[in-house]
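Build the 3D complex.
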Amino acid sequence: MPKEIFMPKLSSTMQVGTLLEWFKEEGETVEVGEPLFEIMTDKINIEVEAYEEGVLLKRYVSEDEEVPVNYVIGYIGEANEAVPDSSPGVSDADAEPADEVKPAGQEENAAPKKQESGEKVRATPAARKVAKDEGLSLLEIEGSGPRGRVQKADVEARGEQGEKVKATPLARKVAAEKGLNLQEVTGTGSNGKIYTADLDTVASANHEASTSEPKRVKLSGTRKMIAKRMAESAFTAPHVTLTSEVDMTASMEVRKQLLPLIEQQTGKRLSYTEIIAKAVAHSLVRHPEINVSLDGDDVVYHEDAHIGIAVSIPGGLVVPVVNRANHKGLGALTEEAKHLATAARAGKLSPDAMRGGTFTISNLGMYAVDVFTPIINQPESAILGVGRIQEKAVGINGQIELRPMMSLSLSFDHRVIDGAPAAAFLTELKQVLENPYQLLT
Amino acid sequence: MRELTYLEAVREAMSQEMRTNEDVFILGEDIGVYGGAFGVTRGMIEEFGPERIRNTPISEAAISGTAIGAALTGMRPILELQFSDFITIAMDNMVNQAAKLRYMYGGEGKVPMVLRTPAGSGTGAAAQHSQSLEAWMTHIPGLKVVQPSTAYDAKGLLKAAMDDDNPVVFYEHKLCYRTKSEVPEEAYSIPLGKADIKKEGKDVTIVATAMMVHKSLEAAEQLESEGISVEVVDPRTLVPLDEETIVESVKKTGRLIVVHEAVKRGGFGGEIASMIAESEAFDYLDAPIKRLGGKAVPIPYNPELEKAAVPQVQDIVEAVKDTLKGL
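Done.
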């Protein structure tokens, strides 16, 4: 019996996954524990290992295709074992009734249906001939025959939808060879009949256009997910951003003193990000109205500060979470944050490592960025943007002094947090960073 | 015009030919006074005498060997085998001698003979007397194979077979013997290799042979009442085969069902299906080609089982509907 390969459910909230890459071809032998394919969930790419040994008999899902959890994406079994031509869909055993998501083109009983590009079109010879004569693409035609086979009547029905194109037989032949759509060609003959020469103008116009066309890459994978989530956040949560400048003199001093100590303890170098994270965790506990998230109509107050730290990775951005950061010292915090960042850059973050954050820090201090307005990482209600540290002339006790100043930007969701508590939190944070020794209390 | 049975039409064709051509004679088992196993030659011995209506010993090998020898000497023999199943006993003569000699003699010798024989099931004659083995014969270069379905065709095709200078195997279906159609009194010839469209239609082509022509026509009539238009093509001769008529019909309807009584596996239906797949009609196919043939079993004696072993009208009706669904 061939064994089904499912889209795994890697978190309690995961409903769909995108198949990024197959590591095995159909017909290849697979050992238990060997990486079989890579998928992307909410915000993570993960390699999935084979849990059966045998031969990869079938792959139903192509790369970059999104399918629901528990959807049968392939089969492992003995060589030449019979498997269905198309995926049986979501396995009944574990399917969640709420999961209504179905991959494109896989609707049950959805005949007639269009056939996916790339897959060979099932069509009768007569349908092929008529489509060719009419300059129609079989890919565009819904087949009414068994298993979606395109029949002559389907092509004719399609042909009648559009105005029938007048063209010479040679023009039709050349158009079919060059993949040109006759519907888009203007004929110069009587009643607009298309001659072969008319195709050349279109072909050359296409060619000229293509030389100056910008490169287009379809939104997919992590990028697609980020696009979706950022848009959702920006369009649903009314963002207000407060900014404040922090004098980092004392924090720099703390870092200077603790850096060799922590490096000795953990082998990791303490950075400002960790100091800021520690200060944020410290302040969040004192301002529980900021450490909240919105769940439907409920505001959820979090006891501990689980700090997400945004990490830039090739092609996107991920936010691993340091859990219970308020209970961790700078050493432990540094060790954990560095470990998560390394894993993120290597693409090896587990989904768990990105779950459960209550507040996010996005630090662009390594760039020439002073102030920016970060977008909240929903369902959290606030995010802190960190700019660079730069010496600025500030007035202190009637004197102008050069101090290492850093901008903090606090974006918050005005649906659940008002300006005053947000300002109070930011004030406290500034005060902690300017007097970091209180973190030792 | 007067109507004749298929059996009478065959007899009339032979009698007319024998009156005009003295080289023609008939040989076979019990064909004289008895009139042959099915009565085809009944009464002929009175007119033509025992010299020309020759009873033979019970040996198909001897009958066929004699016929081939006589043909080589310039006679035009017609041999009758009581049941087409017995052609197996004449096989060496038919396959290795009759089919080859004209070629091997460089055209200097000819074998103008007709082997007539009743074929097919439906008479309760059981496994050794009910087979349809025509596909065997079509495989042998040098033999022509004829399968008339109507009295009119039988008379005209037999005339053409008798006029041919090559050996012709002429299959007469037992159940066709009693069917009637209008048959002209004068002698006429239907060229070998010319199919007949027994019924015109536009939705699906049925190519049927022998008794299956009648069953297909009955099925077509049923289907017509349901608004399905069936074209029934009778090739009449398998070798030579009128490919053009079949191709044109399939180009018109886009769908093809081949129906024969012979076992489907290895049957002539496969040849027609392949011919269409190789022809320009391929581009016009709008459904898979379907073959209906006998089951791969010896023909049973039990009448109900005998019916179940070969295609019946209802099978053809269902096949047409399936084909229209693209199945």
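Residues 115 and 169 of chain B are 5 Å apart (CA to CA).
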